[in-house]
Records
---
Amino acid sequence: MALVAVQTSPFSGYTVNRFSGVQKIQIHRIVCICAQLVARMAAMFTCWLGCCGDGGSGHIPLKEMPTVQLDTHHMGTDVVIVKSGRRICGTGGCLANAPLHQNKSYFEFKIQSTGVWGLGVATQKVNLNQVPMGRDTNSLVLRHDGSVYHNNEEKNRLPANSLPQEGDIVGITYDHVELNLYLNGKNMHCPASGIRGTVYPVVYERCDIVYGSVDDLVLR
């Protein structure tokens, strides 16, 4: 059995960590730039209403943006989500709970240690028990070996000298047509396309068997 830890916060990210033979993946900061700008504008407008408005009941109350986290309703059968949607355990994939509706979305993942992982975008029809992803029309993912797959076809590949390593940050932009990859803020000029429909950030990993009891696995 293996373990993956996931953390969400404003802006997106994904982290892989390994300790005591256990694989750990942290996902943090999954959010779109446009969504963050909308949230800031909403906060400024709310402040204006409070400071300059009459405080009456005539204005429309603004709703807070939902917290972006892993969605327990859209995960593999061998995946367990803990820590309020911030950690994923087991083998398989999981979607984020917020779709990418903006004209151009961005999220990023921080790799803490190497392993078998993948990240990208997927529809809700994706098979989250199938690892690696990218085998059907419902997912477009970067795999840990640098290949980008969709519909069981290699769409592109990172240069051999630019594979994500421990401590690297992988960024993804998606404009509903093309997915682009960034490594530590640098455009890798590795576009890929083909997926259609409403998509969500997706992450998966494959855990090797670790001998010992569940009590031996420590979440950090």
Note: Confidence is low (pLDDT under 50) at residues 1-55, 209-220.
---
Amino acid sequence: MPQQRENQKRTHAEEKEFERMLHSINIIFLGCTTLVVCDMQYVGRFWTQFEFWAATQVASANGLSSGLRKGIETAQQLLGPLYLIRCIHSAPQAMQHTLEDMWAHKTPEQAAEALSKDDVLVTNKKDKTKQLKKLKKLNEDCIQAYADIEGWRRPVELAARSVAEAMSGSLKEIDVVALESAIRGAKCLPPESLDQARNKLAEARRSQAMHRLALVTAPPYNYVDEAEVKDAILAAREVGVANEQLERAADVLKISGDMRLLAEQVEHAQVRADKLQVDLKKTTGKLTSSEQEKQREKEEAENRLQGVKTEMAQTKEAKEHELDQANARQLELKQAVEESKGETDQAKKQVLELQQNLRRQGIELDQLRREFQGKERVLKDERTSLEDELQRKRNEILEERHARMKAERVLNARRVSARSRGIISRLFASVFGAPRVENQHV
């Protein structure tokens, strides 16, 4: 606290700071371990006894109560030591018990009554009056403070419980909509908890998108719904699923289209074969002299049919080989995903470190911005001063120029006047000069 120095009063700012700290100084002794340095004058001073009484109290939702009511050992086990007494100078060790007997079991009202006695000395009586008023309502203030804390903590606990319930379960079982709604309603939670919930939401979206992608691209590939696969690929790309899985889904989509096209070709070939067989049956009873030629045509048709079947079998074998390769690639991708989980945890740690660095850099940026704004204001003031000085110089130059022009006009006028007088004198002398002289002589 700002103290009054010898032969020098506190400044206005120090006085305001002193009053503000004095108003709440007693709260310190309710929440920390107090070292009591006791001498013979300790039990006769207002501030020392007031602070010792506060040091023996324990604050709770029910108000203030003595930390020694159930024994000092119990209070020390729960809260640590409330105070430590060290007797100095002529004070005997028995004063420790004297202090505890005097103050440890007094209620706020009893303490206020005891401290208000005239034999309790204080340097500034105004401090004693203020602190006694506060002491009488200190119990109510303590109860109200705990009620305010409880009122603030309840919404936070409800929001935290809602987010925790929405985050429970595996990534595939998380209700993404419910978790997103819980995050929107939990703005009172710390930023670290919200970031953790958002990361969990992103992981759940990726996991569910990957699961959906695996379901819609599962064998048999000839029954894959292309529209559903495309929709699943778009959804997976939006939530950042690995490119390898997206490429595999695209390969499955391509294989499905090829197998569908192959099935159509097989169906057309079967129709052609059925048509050839019908034609053969029709021509069986109509064999004429060209029976051998028809037989050759039949054999050629059977050969072509056999060729088509052989080609279909080869194409089917090639597609099955591609399918086996795709399945092998899928297993490799699963192994790669499992291996990348460890890298993902490390990346999360790096992201948290980056976020902390960004917050730290944001603080530094705000400080630089404030310094820049201060310098900018100084530059503006200097610029305004320079502009005023420049305007004053301009005014002086204009005044000097007007004075010079005025002097030139006066000088020109005088020159014109002198020239005019000279001309008039010469004219007069030339016209009237001789007669005028004779008349003067006469």
Note: The first strand starts at residue 34 and ends at 38.
